[in-house]
Each structure stands twice: as structure tokens, then as C-alpha cells.
Write a structure and sequence with these properties.
The structure holds two protein chains of two kinds. By secondary structure, chain A is an alpha+beta fold. Chain A contains six helices and three strands, in the order H-H-H-H-E-E-E-H-H. Chain A has a three-stranded antiparallel β-sheet, sandwiched between helices. By secondary structure, chain B is of the alpha/beta class. Chain B has five domains: 37 residues; 100 residues, Ubiquitin-like (UB roll); 106 residues, 2-Layer Sandwich (Alpha-Beta Plaits), CATH 3.30.70; 202 residues, 3-Layer(aba) Sandwich (Rossmann fold); 148 residues, Dimethylsulfoxide Reductase, domain 2 (3-Layer(aba) Sandwich), CATH 3.40.228. Chain B has a seven-stranded mixed β-sheet. A five-stranded mixed β-sheet of chain B has the order 2-1-5-3-4, sandwiched between helices. In chain B, helix 1 packs antiparallel against helix 2. Classes of the chains: A alpha+beta, B alpha/beta. At the A-B interface, loops of A face loops of B. The complex binds iron/sulfur cluster (SF4) and FE2/S2 (inorganic) cluster. FE2/S2 (inorganic) cluster binds next to loops of chain B. Chain B: It is found in: Mitochondrion inner membrane. Chain B: Keywords: 2Fe-2S, 4Fe-4S, Electron transport, Iron, Iron-sulfur, Membrane, Metal-binding, Mitochondrion, Mitochondrion inner membrane, NAD, Oxidoreductase, Respiratory chain, Transit peptide, Translocase, Transport, Ubiquinone. Chain B: It catalyses: a ubiquinone + NADH + 5 H(+)(in) = a ubiquinol + NAD(+) + 4 H(+)(out).
Chain lengths: 157, 752
């Protein structure tokens, strides 16, 4: 707690009060007041080492001492409003779940250049247009045409 | 670990003399010394192995079944000889080859060049077997079986011989099975799995051969060719074209057309089936599907009156390929190019919604309910005599029955089938059937073709005639417009004049007819529409009487029909009441009829078109009712020799279309004159009361009485107009083939 305050004071000194407050808001401290999950993560973060940040702004922490088994690695979501587990990209998923000890940044090197596509989170409940539909799905706007015959067009004559 | 364990086990269990082998396992660098092409060590020394072979066990094993139900037919029981295949005694007729004897004994000999319907070439050497007392393995396909011959097909020598041949064949064969259309149904693949070695020793470069352009139907990848010459023999012997041949010798040997040209035969597609490898494959089917993805449906071809047996290969809703089925009585194992390649027409120009022509002359898609209501209303407004129905070329018997019943209930009997003319002779079946049957044509020794060009009208019948002419030097006389006939023939004349000369015995061809044992007269159905039809038919009958063509043991007076629906229509009695009913019609029901002369139809007539393709008649229609094509329905068709067969649905019906008979049944209900059948079975029960022979599937029902005795004498009053050609374009004869792109290509490139 003390270091947290010290850091905050240091930030105010360096950036001025307005900027410091903005940073606080961006980092989600203001949300803490309403959202217990974020507050809890923030408290959990104390003493954790930041292992990496992915391009969605998710921060990955780890700490091995004094933490019950299974909670050594955790994430602070970049999106402080609507966060969920599907926002974790594939490369970090393995690290986070102790599948591998390679961090996401290391695994990203293995991503195939030609056909690797970007991670996309699950937008269920956010509107049809955001949701992924397979190529034959009835709601896919660019739906593949499965008609295998050509019908006669009565335009001529 | 594996090697060590193996070596350990080997050294423990093997006797001392086998030790060096175990040694070789331990020491891979030594492998080369004793490496053989076969994995079974005994086979590396076949002579020695054969020497220590035990004597053959007595045949106490259960007898084996002949391969693919092969049957022996002994014309003369004295000619039977006995040979031993792997110790089993079999009786075969004299003159059979060793390979055929093995087949009867139930042993399948691998082969590439041998084909039971072609001459023997004996150049692939895959069929080597061991014959006792012969110093070398013999090519069984070319070796006649001799009495007492002891044939061995599973000895190490035979095995090694096959492995050797296989290795040579694979030397120059590309390894492109994954991208080859033949992959999965390739004789070379199968036989190298079954009889080949597990490795080859060839390390040099493979040769490659330039691909040939054989036209829009056959794709060539000539590097894959194994020079079995089946295609060359097929072209010269069955198809009757001298297009294909061998060029060069040794490693420069190539199959090709001597000069760059397309293969112009109506049977060219069959080389795809007989080529044992992927050298000749189907161009339209190239890279469309792998053959194990396809669902096969056994069906009947409807593009001509022969009713060739086909298998429709489909994947999902698409017909992807059509291949022949074996039927010795009809198409043997060939089909014509039209049958094989017209299937893409099934996917184009389809009618998929009921439509009504609005007052502005435009078609609007409507529901079935609305469309049927409109038709039923008009049906009740017109007089009974003004109702006319025409069944199309591709109609099945069930729908023709339903249509006839519907019109009869309305009080009209003006219904006929396209191609039968306005005054067909339907009372006696012998008057419109191919009485000697297609297979029976092989017994004929003189043919008289009257106004028919079998090559374009019924390619499979033509193949039979050609087979007969080749085998027995039968004489062929032809009356009709100049045409291309691919066997020896005499062009006697172009029209009725010649026919009369023969009938009066003034023509030199008469003597041939008189001296013939089994003369066959084939009259084209194109003459049905000729205006001097009656005179001509009685002239033909006079000739028949003259030449004793119709006897109790031989009926050689034949009619060759043009369309799949024709004979069933005549059996069902689809005969119009008057000749000019189209002109007077106020309500015209066209059931897939696209060759009706629409200019004759009165402008205020109400035309209903029920069919599957937007071809010709739709443009005159007031209401369009979409129906199913032959690949989508179960229907009975009778072919030109009177054999009824059935199509089966291979793919789902497109769009909102329905089966033909169901549409008519629904219409009858809306019109308030309900037809008494609700299922296909019930329609067939109705057919049974009219023409029971249509229900005897796959059986030829010969006609009982011959028409010769009943017909009146011919009158002399005939015009001298020459006969016309019944089929203008072999590749495009009906609505499906006219919609096909492949057929359009063929027309453009092959009929130049
Ligand atoms: S193309 Fe096919 S059928 Fe013709 S010789 Fe070559 S392998 Fe035989
Ligand atoms: S099948 Fe006998 S040599 Fe080819």
C-alpha cells in the first residue's frame, strides 16, 4: 500500500496533477470504486511482476511467493468496462493457464505471417453484425451461395 | 532399440544358416548387399524356393466362385477341355485363353491390356502365370488353354514376374496420384498395391510425353500412359474411327492422333473408362471431385430411345458424372458421348418456381396454389375438344398416364407424345418396336436401314450393327440422305423411290435380301412425321414379306425410335383424335414438349408448360409449372426394343419443382376432377390396367403378333421427296442437352 501511494505521489510530481489523474482514470483506478473485480485485481497486482502487455492492453502479472497455488499468473484486462476471458489472445492463453512458460511475446514470433489472422474476442450479445458467422450461416451477410443450379430467367422475350 | 531387439530375437530364434541375415539387420551398411526388391526373403531365390515347394494340396478346399460371375457357355459339349488352375480342375470350351480359364476357376489375374470386348494385344505382360513344363512364365491373356494344362497363379515365379512387370511399368509412370482424377479407381494403383513390390530400384529420370488435344471431352495426360493400347483398339474396333494410334517405338512410344486432330466419334467418352490409368480422363469432370466422394445411383439414360444403363454419380445436389453400367442386352458396357456428358445441362436453365404471365406479358413467380387455380379455371372455360395435351420427349410413363387420365376426365382425347406424329400406329406393338431386339441384331446378316441414321439417332444400336458387320461381314444397305456411317455399307438411294424399287424387286439389293438368312430392316422413327408414312410403311412391309423378314423364329422388321418417351406413350395409347388439333386448341398442355411447332398455336390459346428447363416452349406459355428432371425422379421408361426400365432419383429436386405426375394429380384436385391415385404405386396400378408390360422392369416384352399379316397392300401413289434427317445435331436433341454447355462445345468443335 505504501509503495502504491509513493508511486502515485511520484507520478503527480512528474506529470502534474491533471495528467496524473487522467492516468489514474485510464488505468482503471476510478472504476475500482464501482467494480470490485478491478479493485481486487489492483490489490492483487501489488507485489506482482509485470511479465508483458499484449496489443489489446491486457497486462500479465505473475508472482510466485505467498500466493496460493494456481493463482500465480493473472491478467489485468485492458478494457476496464467490458472485460471477459475471450479477450486473451491465443499466444498469452497458454502462458496464463500454465500450459507453457513461454510468454505471449515469445510465442508471437511463431505466428504464421501469411495466414495467421488477428485474435477476435467474443461479441455475443453485442449485436448481430459483430458476431462471427461461418460461411454457410444463415445470418452471414456475405453468405456463400449454395445453389448449385442456374434458374431460367424470364427476362428474354 | 527396435533394431537391437529384432536382431536379438532373430539371432535367438533363427537357425545358424540364417545368421548372416540377422547380421545385416544389425549393420545397416551391409543392407545393400542382400537387398532385394521383395520383402519376403524366400522370393529372392524363386527357383530354389519353387524346388522345395510342397506338392500342391489336393483340392479339398471349397471350390472357388468364378470371378464377377463369369459364366461358360458350351456351344458344343465335345469342345470342353479340362485344365487345372492352382490344382483345381475346371472345364472350359476349346479356344478360351488361359486368363479366361483362370477367371472361370475363380482366380483374378492382374491385367492392363486385356479387355474382354477388344482384341487381344498381349503387350503389357502383367498377366504372366506359370504353366507347368513351360520354361518361362506365359502371358495368360494371349495363350490358348490346352487340354490338361497345369496353370499356377500363386507360385513365387508368377509373383516375381508380376512384381517385375509392375516395377517396369512404374518406372516411367509419374507419381501424381494425389492430383490424378483416376486416383481411387485406377487399375495401376490397385494392382501395384495387390501385386507390386514395395520398392523400386529406378533412380534415373522419368520420361515425359506431350499431352494431346482430343477435343472437349477427353483430357489427356500422356505421361501417365502405360501403352496398353486399349484406347487404340477401342477406337478402331468399337467406335470405328481410325483416329488413335501408336507413334514411335521403345521409350519414344506415344499414343496420339497421327496429325493434330480431335477425336470425332460419338463413343469417344468410353476410352475414359477403358484406360486403366489416368492418361485419358474426362475433361468436364477434371478436378471436380474425388471419386470416393460420389454417390452412385443406378439409372437410365433418357437422351435417346435406347435406354442405356447408367450410373449417376452425384455429390450433394449436383450430378458430377455419368458412367455406364453393364447391360449385355442394351448398351454392353459403353455409352454415347451425349449420355455421358450432357449432365451439366441439368444445372442450367432450370425452372424452379411456378410462374404466371401477367397482362404485360412478363412472367411473375407465384405460389403453386395460385398457379394451379388459374390453370383449373381456364380448363373449365374451354370446350372439351379444344383441350390438347402433348407429352415431351423425356416424359416418364407415370406422368403420361396421369396426363392422359386428366384430359380424358375433361372429355378430351387429344393427347400424344412428341415424335410419334399425328397419326401413330399404336394398336400393334410390333409396329413401333425394335422387334429383333438390340442384342438380337447381332444375328442378322443383311441390314436395310430405311430413313434412319443410327449413328446419330441411337449410337448404341449403331455400335451393335457395327459389331455385327465387323464380326460377320454382314451387308448394310442404307436409304436416306447422305450421312457418315462408320462401317461398310451401300448407299442405295435417298428416298421413297428406292424403297419402291426394292419392294417391287427391281433393285440389285433385293438379291442380298432374298439370300439372307436373318435379314433385318430398320425403319427410322423420323418417318412417322413424313406425309407418305402409310405408303412407305406398306412398302417396307412388302419388302419384309419378300425377304421373309418376319418368321416365327426371327422378326427382323424393326422400327428405331428416337425418344425415351415414345414407346411407353404408344403403349399407353397416347394417340390424338385428329391430326390438326394443335391449330384448333384453346387449351394446350405441354408436358415438357419443346418441339411442338408453336407458330401453329392460335394466339388466343392458353398454353401451360410443365417442365424442367426453360427451353423453347416456355416463351409461348401462359403458366409455367416447374417439374423434376429424370435425375430427380422415379419414373418408368420403355426403350425402343420394348424393355421397360426405371430411373431413380440421384439428386434432390431443384427449387419449388415437383414430380410430373404429382403436379397433374394436384391440378386435377384443384379442378375438381380428382384422379384416383395418391402414390407412385397407385399410378403404377393404374398403368397395369392399360399396359402391364411397362411394369415388368428390366424385361423385354416382345410383341406377340407381327404386323405383316394384318396390314393392307401399299398403294403406288407416293411422292419422290427424299427422306430428311431425323436428328440434325447429335449432341443437342432435347431440352437438357440444349441447355448443356459441354454439348454446345461439342457442337461447335466436333460437328464442323
Ligand atoms: S492412353 Fe490409356 S488406354 Fe490408351 S494406351 Fe495409354 S494407358 Fe492404355
Ligand atoms: S493382359 Fe496379358 S499381356 Fe496385357
Amino acid at each position: 500500500m505504501a509503495s502504491l501511494l509513493k508511486n502515485a505521489l511520484k507520478a503527480i510530481r512528474e506529470k502534474g496533477i491533471v495528467n496524473a489523474l487522467r492516468t489514474l482514470r485510464e488505468e482503471g483506478y476510478t472504476k475500482c470504486l464501482l467494480d470490485g473485480n478491478i479493485l481486487q485485481t489492483k490489490i492483487h497486482n501489488i507485489g506482482g511482476t509485470l511479465v508483458g502487455v499484449d496489443k489489446f492492453g491486457n497486462k500479465y502479472y505473475q508472482r510466485y511467493e505467498g500466493i496460493p497455488h494456481g493463482r500465480h499468473r493473472w491478467v489485468e484486462y485492458g478494457d476496464k468496462g467490458r472485460y471477459n476471458a475471450s479477450q486473451i489472445p491465443a499466444e498469452w492463453h497458454g502462458w496464463l493457464h500454465h500450459i507453457t512458460d513461454h510468454t505471449g511475446d515469445e510465442l508471437l514470433m511463431l505466428k504464421p505471417k501469411r495466414y495467421g489472422i488477428d485474435h477476435k474476442q467474443n461479441y455475443s450479445g453485442e449485436g448481430e453484425e459483430l458476431i462471427y458467422h461461418s460461411k454457410g450461416h444463415a445470418l452471414n451477410p456475405g453468405q456463400r451461395d449454395w445453389t448449385r443450379y442456374q434458374s431460367w430467367q424470364p427476362t428474354k422475350k | 532399440m527396435g533394431l537391437g531387439l529384432l536382431a536379438l530375437r532373430a539371432s535367438r530364434s533363427l537357425a545358424l544358416n540364417r545368421l548372416p541375415r540377422a547380421f545385416a539387420y544389425q549393420n545397416p551398411s551391409n543392407n545393400a548387399i542382400i537387398r532385394g526388391i521383395v520383402s519376403t526373403p524366400e522370393l529372392q531365390n524363386p527357383e530354389a524356393a519353387a524346388a522345395v515347394q510342397q506338392p500342391e494340396p489336393a483340392p479339398e478346399l471349397p471350390p472357388r466362385k468364378p470371378v464377377a460371375g463369369a459364366r461358360v457357355h458350351f456351344t458344343n459339349p465335345d469342345d470342353a477341355i479340362e485344365v487345372f488352375v492352382d490344382g483345381y480342375p475346371v472345364k472350359v470350351p476349346k479356344g478360351m485363353t488361359v486368363l479366361q480359364a483362370c477367371e472361370i476357376a475363380g482366380v483374378d489375374i492382374p491385367r492392363f491390356c486385356y479387355h474382354s470386348r477388344l482384341s487381344v494385344a498381349g503387350n503389357c505382360r502383367m498377366c504372366l502365370v506359370e504353366v507347368e513344363k513351360s520354361p518361362k512364365p506365359v502371358a495368360s491373356c494371349a495363350m490358348p488353354a490346352l487340354p490338361g494344362m497345369k496353370i499356377k497363379t500363386d507360385t513365387p515365379i508368377a509373383k516375381k514376374a508380376r512384381e517385375g512387370v509392375m516395377e517396369f511399368l512404374l518406372m516411367n509412370h509419374p507419381l501424381d496420384c494425389p492430383i490424378c482424377d483416376q486416383g481411387g479407381e485406377c487399375d495401376l494403383q490397385d494392382q501395384s498395391m495387390a501385386f507390386g513390390s514395395d520398392r523400386g530400384r529406378f533412380t534415373e529420370m522419368k520420361r515425359s510425353v506431350v499431352d494431346k488435344n482430343l477435343g472437349p471431352l477427353v483430357k489427356t495426360v500422356m505421361t501417365r500412359c502405360i501403352q496398353c493400347t486399349r484406347c487404340v483398339r477401342f477406337a478402331t474396333e468399337v467406335a470405328g474411327v481410325q483416329d488413335l494410334g501408336i507413334l514411335g517405338r521403345g521409350s519414344g512410344e506415344e499414343i496420339g492422333t497421327y496429325v493434330e486432330k480431335l477425336m470425332t466419334s460419338e463413343l469417344s467418352g468410353n476410352v475414359i473408362d477403358i484406360c486403366p490409368v489416368g492418361a485419358l480422363t474426362s475433361k468436364p469432370f477434371a478436378f471436380k471431385a474425388r471419386n470416393w466422394e460420389l454417390k452412385g445411383t443406378e439409372s437410365i439414360d433418357v437422351t435417346d430411345a435406347v435406354g442405356s444403363n447408367i450410373r449417376i454419380d452425384s455429390r450433394g445436389p449436383e450430378v458430377l458424372r455419368i458412367t455406364p453400367r453393364l447391360n449385355e442386352d442394351i448398351n454392353e458396357e459403353w455409352i454415347s458421348d451425349k449420355t455421358r456428358f450432357f449432365y451439366d445441362g441439368l444445372k442450367r436453365q432450370r425452372l424452379n418456381d411456378p410462374m404466371i404471365r401477367g397482362p404485360d406479358g412478363r412472367f411473375k413467380a407465384v405460389t403453386w396454389r395460385d398457379a394451379l387455380a388459374v390453370v383449373a379455371e381456364v380448363l373449365h372455360q374451354v370446350k372439351a375438344e379444344e383441350i390438347v395435351g402433348v407429352a415431351g420427349k423425356l416424359s416418364d410413363a407415370e406422368s403420361m398416364m396421369a396426363l392422359k387420365d386428366l384430359l380424358n376426365k375433361m372429355g378430351s382425347n387429344n393427347i400424344w407424345c412428341e415424335g410419334n406424329g399425328s397419326d401413330p400406329q399404336a394398336d400393334l406393338r410390333s409396329g413401333f418396336l425394335l422387334n429383333s431386339s438390340i442384342a438380337g441384331l447381332e444375328k442378322a446378316d443383311v441390314f436395310l436401314l430405311v430413313g434412319t441414321q443410327p449413328r446419330v439417332e441411337a449410337a448404341m444400336v449403331n455400335a451393335r450393327i457395327r459389331k455385327t458387320v465387323r464380326a460377320t461381314q454382314a451387308k448394310v444397305g442404307y436409304i436416306g440422305p447422305p450421312t457418315d456411317i462408320n462401317y461398310d455399307h451401300q448407299h442405295l438411294g435417298t428416298g421413297t423411290q428406292t424403297l419402291l424399287e426394292i419392294a417391287e424387286g427391281r433393285h440389285p439389293f433385293c438379291s442380298a435380301l432374298l439370300h439372307a438368312k436373318n435379314p433385318a430392316i430398320i425403319v427410322g422413327a423420323g418417318l412417322f412425321e413424313h406425309k407418305d408414312k402409310d405408303a412407305m410403311f406398306s412398302a417396307v412391309e412388302t419388302i419384309a414379306k419378300l425377304g421373309k423378314v418376319v418368321r416365327p423364329d426371327w422378326n427382323g422388321l424393326n422400327v428405331l425410335l428416337l425418344n425415351a418417351a415414345q414407346s411407353a406413350a404408344l403403349d399407353l395409347g397416347l394417340v390424338p383424335e385428329s391430326g390438326n388439333s394443335v391449330e384448333s386448341a384453346k387449351f394446350l398442355y405441354l408436358m415438357g414438349a419443346d418441339d411442338v411447332d408453336l407458330d401453329k398455336v392460335a394466339s388466343d390459346a392458353f398454353v401451360v408448360y410443365q417442365g424442367h428447363h426453360g427451353d423453347r416452349s416456355v416463351y409461348r406459355a401462359n403458366v409455367i409449372l416447374p417439374a423434376s428432371a429424370f435425375s430427380e425422379k422415379e419414373g418408368t421408361y420403355e426403350n425402343t426394343e420394348g424393355c421397360s426400365q426405371e430411373t431413380l432419383p440421384a439428386v434432390p429436386i431443384v427449387g419449388d419443382a415437383r414430380d410430373d405426375w404429382k403436379i397433374i394429380r394436384a391440378l386435377s384436385e384443384v379442378a375438381g376432377i380428382r384422379l384416383p391415385y395418391d402414390t407412385l404405386g397407385a399410378v403404377r396400378t393404374r398403368i397395369r390396367t392399360v399396359a402391364p408390360n411397362l411394369l415388368h422392369l428390366d424385361e423385354r416384352e416382345p410383341s406377340a403378333i407381327s404386323s405383316v399379316a394384318v396390314k393392307p397392300q401399299f398403294s403406288q401413289k407416293v411422292s419422290i421427296a427424299p427422306f430428311g434427317a431425323a436428328v440434325e445435331n447429335f449432341y443437342m436433341t432435347d431440352s437438357i442437352t440444349r441447355a448443356s454447355k459441354i454439348m454446345a462445345q461439342c457442337t461447335a468443335q466436333l460437328l464442323k
